Automatic annotation (TrEMBL), chain A:
Source organism: Bacillus aerolatus
Domain of life: Bacteria
Keywords from the UniProt entry: ATP-binding, Cell membrane, Membrane, Nucleotide-binding, Transport
Main location: membrane
Name of the protein: ATP-binding cassette domain-containing protein
Domain ABC transporter: 2-249
From TrEMBL, chain B:
Domain of life according to the entry: Bacteria
GO CC annotation, single: plasma membrane
Stretches for region Disordered: 318-339
GO MF: transmembrane transporter activity
Membrane topology according to the record: Multi-pass membrane protein
UniProt keywords, alphabetically: Cell membrane, Membrane, Transmembrane, Transmembrane helix
PANTHER family according to UniProt: ABC TRANSPORTER PERMEASE PROTEIN YPHD-RELATED-RELATED, BRANCHED-CHAIN AMINO ACID TRANSPORT SYSTEM, PERMEASE PROTEIN
Compartments, as annotated in UniProt: Cell membrane
Protein name (record): ABC transporter permease
Amino acid sequence: MLQLDQIYKVFYEGTPDEKIALNQLQLQMNPGDFVTVIGSNGAGKSTLMNIISGNIFPDYGTVKINGSDMSSMPEHKRARKIGRVFQNPLAGTAPTMTIEENLALAYNRTKPRSLQFGVTKKRRDFFREQLEILHLGLEDRLQAKVGLLSGGERQALSLLMATFTKPDILLLDEHTAALDPARADLITKLTKEIVAKFQLTTLMVTHNMQQALDLGNCLIMMDKGQIIFQANETEKPDLTVEKLLAEFQRIRGEALLSDRSLLA
Amino acid sequence: MFTALFGSVEVGVIYAIMALGVYLSFRILDFPDLTVDGSFVTGGATAAVLIISGVNPFLATAGALVAGFLAGCVTGILHTKGKINALLSGILMMIALYSINLRIMDKPNVPLLAEETVITKISAWWQGLGFDSMMQSLLTSIGLSEYIPSTWGIFTVMFVLAFAIKKAVDLFLKTEIGLSLRAVGDNDGMVRSFSANTDWLKVLGLGIANALVAFSGALVAQYNGFSDVGMGIGMIIIGLASVIIGEAVIGNATIVRATLAVLIGAVLYRLIVTLALRAEFLETGDMKLITAVIVIFALVVPKLIEKQKAGARKKKRAAQLGSAGTNGGDQVAAARSDL
Ligand SMILES: Nc1ncnc2c1ncn2[C@@H]1O[C@H](COP(=O)(O)OP(=O)(O)OP(=O)(O)O)[C@@H](O)[C@H]1O
Ligand SMILES: [Mg+2]
């Protein structure tokens, strides 16, 4: 489904600030895989997401989706195959537009936009049906401006907008990190449900190790621009937070900063 | 007095079309587009030159629309493909258009008084309807004979035209393309993640905005009976003044309302300027200064009013809490923490 080959990305090359964000990274995801990604700050997780989505381009390496090379395709074209939810709840929606208008915008992810009305009666019924999945009562507030929603509601809406058109790949970059624990749990639960419902191939970054263990069928750990540990479908169920920490220590040979702060 | 006010309403409606263009770039695209000062003249110049060379005035006015569209697209391309800052792209285009407008007209001023224009055609057609004489006898019979404008035709037709354009803008902004255009001004990273080409949308949006501006310029030139290379100076501020006054008076809760606000704002702006110019100590040359002052007022006064209101609310609440002696703060906090 998704195949990354020798992805290399360096920022500020040739200056004292030179930073290798991704170093010869390899990743292969099969259809229906749900991979959780953990790693310390600056490990290159967001850069990886940006390279898959086409927001930035690698200095070397190829990105393939469904076997076709997307390496030089601009972000808006790649978006036909990719759904994305950002960390910031403000980033995934248009605040001055209504809930139904936002959904209409998302509805067009897979088809070219035309001069027909974005919100029609038929679509409105469809949107209402989709919003019911969230159990937040948003289906009764179709004409409310999204700017008036709470952070949790907005993030739930962003998640729905990114997924209800069934993308080939779903990218989630710490999409629960900016929410308080109760709302983060809600979004985590919705993520689980929606990914299962639409059978989405998903890549999810999180700083919460427990969340990374609870969700998905595979797990990868990143550090310094590389994948340093990988657990597949058969290995992942046996993992615990303690094992992950021990693994990190073994591979990097560095004592973790006393507690889990580096990863958690 | 009445005639002067009627005249300003008439002109205001024509300028409202320009203000709708400014609304599109400033408010919808969130792009401070200074191309307007140039494209307004480009519209007037294109129409004037086409009319003089014998083209049907309606076609000539449509030609102005196209010229404005192209000018706006160039600004958009400078910004998106040339990666030039929004303000600077507009300024560059405005300066470039000054020379281009001179080239189009071949001289700084093209008179149209002897020509057949959209305005003369409308007047002639309207005269045929006999509506003016009807209004005349009506107003005279109720004792308002001194309040009779020479013709209602220009006002009526321009009003219908401006309203039709407003309606078209409303509808366009509800289409799939229109929605993505609005989202570009709101959150352009998000629009890209939903596979919209934001560069192209910005170019399109600026094209449409400047098409409206140039269209308005073409009508103003024909209304005034000449096209002048300097007639666009400060146009952007006039457009902005219209948008801001309208928003202050009507509000902008929905698109339908916001575009209506622009129309009304444009007329109000004209009325205010006309009234201000009647003051003894002000001259025609002070118009730009008056405009600047109006914009400053329209920007500052609503904020002062809001502050005043907030202050009053605060005092009221303090008084209530003081007398009741309870702590209402907790309740407020509890209510807010719900999802
Ligand atoms: N646009 C950029 N310009 C310059 N440097 C960048 C840019 N984006 C990322 N970097 C650098 O690349 C490295 C990897 O950053 P990245 O954002 O991918 O980390 P991350 O794993 O997502 O970290 P976090 O957990 O803090 O989100 C960091 O050192 C960062 O400073
Ligand atoms: Mg990150």
